[in-house]
Structure formats: C-alpha cells, structure tokens
Amino acid sequence: MSCPDCKSAAARRDLVKSARMVTIGNPNTGKTTLINALAGSDLKVGNWPGTTVERLEATLRLPGKELLLVDLPGTYSLSPTTPEEALAARELLANPPDVVVNVVDAGNLERNLHLTLELAELGLPVVLAMNLMDEAAAKGYTLDPAALEKELGVPVIPLVASRGAGIEKLLGSLDQARVPALQVRYPGALESAVRELASRLEHPARRWIALALLAGEEVPLELDPAVQEFARSRRAELERAGIDPYLEIENARYTRAHELAQRVLVGSEPRLTLTDRVDRWVLHPLLGGPIFLLGMLLAFRFTFLFSTPWVDFIGGLQEVLAGWIRALPLPPLAVSFLADGLIGGVGTVISFAPVLFFLYLALAFLETSGFLARAAFIADRMMLLAGLPGRAFIPLILGFGCNVPAVYATRVLTGRLDRLRVAMAVPFMSCSARLPVFVLLAAVFFPEQASLVVFGLYLLGMMVGLLTAWLIGRAAGAAPSSGLMELPPYRLPAARVVLKQAWARTRSFLTGAGGFITLAVVVIWALLNLPPGTDMTHSYYVLLSSALKPLFAPLGVDDWRLLGALIPGFVAKEVVAGTLALSYLGAEPSAALGLLQGLGQIIAGFWSSVLATLGAVPALFGLPQLVPPAADEPTALQLALASAITPAAALAYMVYVLLYTPCVATLAAIRHEFGRGWALIAVVYELIVAWLLAWGAYRLALIWLGA
Amino acid sequence: MRRLADLPEDTPARIRALKTPPLLRRRLLALGVRPGAEVRVVRRAPLGDPMEIAVGDTLIAIRHAEAAGVELEE
Question: How many CB pairs under 8 A join A and B?
C-alpha cells in the first residue's frame, strides 16, 4: 500500500510525539479563525489557570505525531501593558514550546513583524503564518513572502485562514520551524550592554531577557540578584549617557521591522477598503450617533428576544416537575422543599443559561466584527464623564435587560479595575425584572405621571451607577482609564468558534455560580416554610419582615407585607410583585400533575419556544415598546396597596427596590468574576445607598406632595 | 510646538517625541505610534473626542488629552 506520508515521516522524526505548539500574534490577525481551521471540531475552550483570560486548546492528530496546540492571548509586544499580554510572555519563558506559529497580518506587516523580532530574541523555533492575504490584496498590496523567508530563515506560509487556504502547507512546514536567523542590532553602547548582560545569563532567551532588564521591565523569571544588580547599573549608565533604553530598543526593532516590511511589499496601489467605506457611515459626524444606538438596540434585543422563549420554557419545565412531585406520596414539607426549594433553585440557575448564551453570541459578534471598537469610539466621550473607557457602555446598557450577563460583559474591558468599577455600577441599572414593581406601584399612586416616574427611576439608577464607578476610580487613586485602542478592520467571525466560546462561557456560569444561587433559593424557601406545620403568617418570613419595620419607618413604609416582599426579591427581583400579590391576596392552589399531562405540557412548551424564537427575528427590527401598557381597571392588589401606604412612601419603596442589593444571581456573577469580598461589598454598599436615597426621595416627596 | 491633538484631519505629519506618562507611552509604542512614524488624523468622533488616527496600516482611537503628549515635527 502506498503511503504519501511515509516519505516525510523521517524528516518529522525530530519532532517528538505530542509536541507542544503555541500560536501567538497581534490582536485582530485572524488568529482565532486560523485555530478554528487547524483544530476543527477538536477545539477546547477554557480559562488560563487562576484567571478569566480565555484559553483555546486542541490536539492536532497529524500523520505520525500528535501536536498539542495552545493559543496565547493576542499581544502587540512581549513587553506587556495588560494582564492578558503579560500571560503570553510568561508562558513563553516558563514553558518554552517546541514550535511557535507566529500569526501576522499580511496587510499590516511592519507592526506585526515587531513581535516576530522579539520572538527571534527569545530563541524559539518559529513558523510564520502570513494570514489575511486576501485583505492585503484588497488593500492593493503585492507581497513577496519568499523574500521574508530568506530574510528571517524560517518558513513563511501565506494564508487565508477564513477559507482554509494554506492550512495544509502550514501543517507541513511545522517541522522546518527554526529560530529566526535575523537579530536586531541595537545602537553602539546599548548593543554592547546587551551582549555583556546576556553573557551572564543561562536561559535560551538570554538576549530578550537582557533587553527587557535594560529597558527596566519586569521579567517573569527567577533571576540571580547579582545579574539584576549588574543590569541596573548598566541601565543607569546608559541613562546618564542620555540614552533612553526602552525607547531605543523599540525604535531599533521598529526600524528593522520597517525595512523587512519594505522588502516584502513589492507593490502598493492604495485602494479604499471595506473598512474605509463602512466607517464613513458608522463613524459619520451626524449619522454615527444614531447608527451606534441602533446597533446597541439590536444587540440588546437579540439577547433578550431570542432567550425569553427559552427562559419561559425552563419555567414551564419547572412547573411540570413540581407538579409531578406534588403527585408523589410524600409529607407536605418534603414536597414543598423539592418542588419549590430545590427545583426552584436549580431552575433559577438554568433559566439564566439561554440569556447568557445569546449575550455571548452577540458580544462575540460585536467584538470580532470590529463593531464593538467603533461603539466604544462613539461612546467614549460620554463614558469619560465617569472616568470610564468607551467600552464600558456595553455592559451598562445590557444591565437594563439583566444584570447577570451585564456583569460577565465587563470582560470586554481591559484591566481588572475598570472591569470591577463597571461591575459595581451594573446592579444599579434597572433590569427588566424590576419593571413590574414600578408599573404596579406607579399605576396605583401616580396614575397621571406613571411613565414619567418609571423613566425617572431608570435615570436615577443610571446616575447612581456611574457615580459609583467614578467613586471607586477616585478611591483606587488610579490614573484615568485610557481611550487608546486599535480600530480593527471589519470582519466576519468564525461561527463554530463563536458558538463554542459562547457555550463554554455559559457552562462556566452554571458550574461557577450555580451552587451559590441554588443555596440562596433554598434559604429563602426555608424562611417562608419553617417552622414546619405553620402557614405563611406564622413563618420565620413574617417574623423577619416585622423585625424590619423600625428600620424602614423613616421611609414611611411600615407594612410587613411590603417589607417582606423585599426578601425573596433578593433571589430574583421579578418575584417582588408576585410576593406582594401572595401576601395581600393569599396563595393560589398549585395542582399536582399526571405523568402524561406533564409530558404534553413540556412538548407544547418546547414547540412554542421554537416558534417564538423564530418569531423574534422580525421583532428584532421592530420598534421597542417604551411605554408600559396601562392597566384598565384597578386590580384587587392595587386597591389593597393603595390603602397600605402613602404615595410618598410608595415612591421611597420604588427607589429602594431600584437600588437595594443585587439579586443573588448577579452577586454570584460578581463573586465568580471578582471574588467573595467584592460580592459582599456590593450587598452592603447597595443596601446603604438604597436606604439613603429612598429616605431622600421620601422627604422630598413629602414636601412636594404634602404629607 | 505642534501636537497631535491639534493636527487637522488628513494632514500627514511626522512624530517627534512622546511626552506622555510611561504606561501610555508603552501602549502607544505597542501600537506603532513612535518617534519618526508618520501619522494622520482620519476623523474626530461625533462628540469631538476621541479622534481616529492612522499610523502605518493601523487605525487607532486616541483621546484628545492623550494626543496632547504626542509632539510632531514642524
């Protein structure tokens, strides 16, 4: 039998079985698309240990060998400016791979080759994947990859990864990976200092380490203190001679990268690119603002319109399961625990999965398409008022839908402090679960100005949120966040990677935050149903609600039923209105379900969710419903509420519901992303802020409305 | 002293020096904004700030306050 691979197998023998290969490149070089093409369905998405930085990994099975492929975070240079970039340098130094695939943008060689020259100084075997050849051609560039191959002494493979072009050739060239022959020469005194310092180091990356030390960089390695001391003295010497090592090094690298790029670029007839044409509209002085708002609206509606039917389906599923449990011959307390506590808790967790999944799809599309950077560019001036970068706009606006995905959306920001500041502001954005309470109370107490009151509450939440972000920034004493970022070319994301990433991130929520949420639901269940054998009016719930009275007396709210509704509101804000109905009007009996009846309901629910998802497509482009529908006749609940408190107290109650504690799922998200301490701070801070502002609203309303 | 912050649109200029805080300088250098490079202002954002600049083949958003530290050759 003929074997086409046998001939090259001998040449590949120098690669050990299961060798490690990493991909590294500047952001926006189509690296993810390339990995998708390389890895196929084998792609695994996870996190770098101890971080929230995403890590892509795959095992490539090639004839005669296995390759473990690990993707390093996109980085412009190995002198990091963000934690993500620091990770790339640390990994290369601590865990030198067998092969480095350096992905470069063929249409932006000079900046991309800067990183290649750093890799040469690291002494690692490199293959250059010259991606996006199609875009370079569209720009009017004629390139000569062979010239670069000759200069660098490593395989240079032209690619269009989105179409899979060049992938085979890239795989075939891996065993010809070499340490680039080309080294940057630094000006006189600097070069001799580099050599002298490098000769005192043992590491294969000694030249890069020497340069980093002279530039005053942190090197993520254990180094001999004597060497470090020597580096410091040489650095001081250079500075005394009027040389700025960092700048000189960067300059020399760029100059060399420029020369290289010039040699590869054999022809250039500049043409208007797709990006130029699209940006003319998207960043237009007058149309840019409206297009930005429309895009945000579309992302918002995509997330919530497509997920709502599935959230409803999960709710229906919960009811069916609870119905089945009620049909079991168990003591009432056990039935209640299983049906309401456990299934309620797990159901709450799972009901967030569709929202997060569609959010992550929307975010990945915005990010990879290049639209996110434009949105940030347009919104930057507004966000600067709160000392935030433009990208902060995205999580904040998502917060109006649901705070949980909004907390995770803070990942679009770079830098932990900015992420944290926005995450602490997010819970003040009035999510859709709070609207029913506002509509209910506003219709009872402010029938003429209901819309205005609701709108005012949204505005108040936003202002408190931005102020919070600003305050944390001030308290941390950090320099104002930077607006500096690349505006990458417009591109279509690789569907399979986006789907896999969205699923991996959703799964990470389910496992990382699920237990905490379920536990909280069970605790609330216990409050409502214990001690055993009592009805609700004698439960711990009522005891606790009544104990809250003195605390809320200054706000004019002294009805235990209103105060009690705040407690389950901690689990999910949508239950506040439901609990009010329950405590004012009494419970509706919930029925037991037969097996077949339940199955019928599940199937019907699934089908109607499919239909509703499809039906959401036209609604995506429809106008949003800004005014809540007005109730015709006052309901029994509204009449009961009207006699319970005064309008001023109702306003205070609404302000309190708007601002008090993030719901448990949001807290779980904050804890998952930023740790337990910050989740705790969020609760305490928001309880205090809510009380103070509700008190303020009450006093103002008393003056304005009369006692 | 000519500064990037004041450069009119579509008027190419050459960068002379980066008089910015260290972290910003590093970020600028990482993106290819370096002394000797040619820079052009593509447009300003609808609200007047930030602005979009082109350095080589890279398009970059930069705030007015940040661009004030980028000095240009006369």
Answer: 115
